[in-house]
Amino acid sequence: MAAQFGSGKMGFLFFFLFMVSLSTAPAFDHPDLKDHKIQMRPNFHPEGHPFAESKVSSKSNSITQLWHKNGRCPEGTIPVRRTRKDDILRASSIKQFGKKNHKSFPKPRSAEPLPDLISQSGHQHAIVYVEGDKFYGAKATINVWDPRIQQPNEFSLSQMWILGGSFGQDLNSIEAGWQVSPDLYGDNNTRLFTYWTSDAYQATGCYNLLCSGFIQINNQIALGASIYPLSNYGSSQYDISILVWKDPKEGNWWMQFGNDHVLGYWPAPLFSYLSDSASMIEWGGEVVNSESDGQHTSTQMGSGHFPEEGFGKSSYFKNIQIVDGDNKLRAPKDLGTFTEQPNCYNVQSGNAGDWGTYFYYGGPGRNPNCP
């Protein structure tokens, strides 16, 4: 429950969410944004964006958030997930609350030999990616699941990465998708999330609205709030669509949820490399493998099933697209795939009809071939 209308009153009873006015939103605490004038709508959408996208083999338009059962925010305000004392106590430190660990990004390299791996952080991935060009956004439709998490300090997520710079200490990243993270949220609910960093997760950036940066303008969708309904193995499938693109006029990076909800934007001054364009786009899954008992974690990625099981059983991204220099959505070219341990989590891409460019991904983690 997020907010509940009082009987016959306009007041809210606040539980896990509260309202703030747009002018006092957390984003404006950032020193680079003190004189920023809020942009209430993007100047342009990418050409080819399907505002009336047909839903094939899914029920995306039924997706909503649990707090909608009990109320909505009035115009001029936005919903913000309440940070409670227990949330902060679960973090390794107050400084790290709401942040990813260092080096938690996939680092594929298309040239031989095998991809250069970053494994010391315990993060594992199953992704597809494009590189070698200038990119101005990305889009995908992702089905949503409730993967099992073995340890509270582990998570499972499915997201897009929009990356600029090198994979050293200057990486810029904008990220969006769904995640299950007991450490961050205190439960195992599947939640919509965003993330950003301008220095490879060292000091800048955070999840959702837990630090200044992202400017939310939408009063109907709450970042960090639970998504429902969820896909069921061998039964109904539900998915969400996410679009992130750079406004050609103002240079801000916008995010849209579904066909109807422009959520807000990351202002251009937050970034160095992304102030121009992205150099790599990644789509896929990520988990934390803490190996707490000396074995690979059994934390699931996606549905917890391997790609070869296909529709209704494995997780998918479909209609993945990039935004090019002409502000047009198009299918990515020369798509690469990457996973550290394919016997634990894997990825398979394809192209077909209404699904466009798609891939299945995920896995159960620990199994006889992933000890």
TrEMBL record:
<keyword id="KW-0732">Signal</keyword>
<dbReference type="Pfam" id="PF03080">
    <property type="entry name" value="Neprosin"/>
</dbReference>
<dbReference type="InterPro" id="IPR025521">
    <property type="entry name" value="Neprosin_propep"/>
</dbReference>
<protein>
    <recommendedName>
        <fullName>Neprosin PEP catalytic domain-containing protein</fullName>
    </recommendedName>
</protein>
<dbReference type="InterPro" id="IPR004314">
    <property type="entry name" value="Neprosin"/>
</dbReference>
<feature type="signal peptide">
    <location>
        <begin position="1"/>
        <end position="27"/>
    </location>
</feature>
<dbReference type="Pfam" id="PF14365">
    <property type="entry name" value="Neprosin_AP"/>
</dbReference>
<feature type="domain" description="Neprosin PEP catalytic">
    <location>
        <begin position="117"/>
        <end position="371"/>
    </location>
</feature>
<dbReference type="InterPro" id="IPR053168">
    <property type="entry name" value="Glutamic_endopeptidase"/>
</dbReference>
